[in-house]
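haha ok so turns out i had the wrong file open the whole time. this is the CORRECT one, sorry everyone. sequence first:
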Amino acid sequence: MIVDDSAVIRGMIARWLTEAGGFEIVATASNGRMAVDSAERSKPEIILLDIEMPEVDGLAALPMILKAHPASKVIVISTLTQRNAEISLKCLSLGAVDYLAKPESARAAGAAADFRRDLIEKLRALGETKSRQARVLAPVIPVASTSFAPPAARPGTVRPQCLLIGSSTGGPRAVERVLLDLKPALSTIPVLIVQHMPAMFTAVFAEHLQALLSVPAREARDGDAVAPGTILVAPGGRHMGVVSSGGKAVIRLNDGPPENFCRPAVDVLFREAAGVFGASAIAAVLTGMGSDGTHGARHLTKAGATIIAQDEATSIVWGMPGSIVKAGLAHEILPLESIGRSLKGHITGSSK
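then structure:
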């Protein structure tokens, strides 16, 4: 179902999805009130929900839509503004699974092409996840009974000195949950996060984490010290790495080409952190489409670091963590609700 107050946008998206094949448009709506009624009748698997609409906007409509049809996966679409970034993150906390930056104008050919590509990729990933999850019965995947490579050998007993988190689709809520569960230990370790987000969204996300956790969190700046008790989020549109300078670990941002079609890329952070922290790094790869993080994870495991992957049953899209598992790089494969507790055990040396 496509929900947007612009007939041009609704028509454009419907045409793209029809041409791409494999998608059926079951309903369209021009405001939130119509969307609630249509969701109950047409029961769409995925809903594209605009934020700014007359009568009932996307933020107000979202909880009503999910109440009318809880099985729907909602992707919020909005133009890139500070206000819309804040509203989009609020929508994610209310149950939306992802967000997408809408082009300012349907006539902006380059922006429209990027939007079309990203939209179709996200929809295909969500569709593939639905097909796989229909076959998943256990909350934790028994790796030995699959064709995946076996988990990497457990590293030594080096106490982690830096936590690395990589995530994409469904990531903001997953990151929140992990850090909330880890909160008692956050003051003892720096946290570096690469969440695939556009510019502007990452700063808002960092502010949200600080308000939620009462721990210093901000969008990373070039030259920032990697210090215990601080959460640094890679800025949208820039790679975030880490280097050793004067005996201390500091952030290095760069505008290099995308890796895995991503900038920031998890691979960049993992690769560089492996060289700086070695076996004292610990990484969590959470829900997200694609395979970003796998190449960097190879560097981490070679250096003796520990890697935890989110399981398929609790992932919105089991792309990034699934790639880690299939490559045999995961030391632990856990449901979302267990990851924070496991990280806390590694970091504090206690299983409690």
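Residues 83 and 152 are 43 Å apart (CA to CA).
again sry for the mixup
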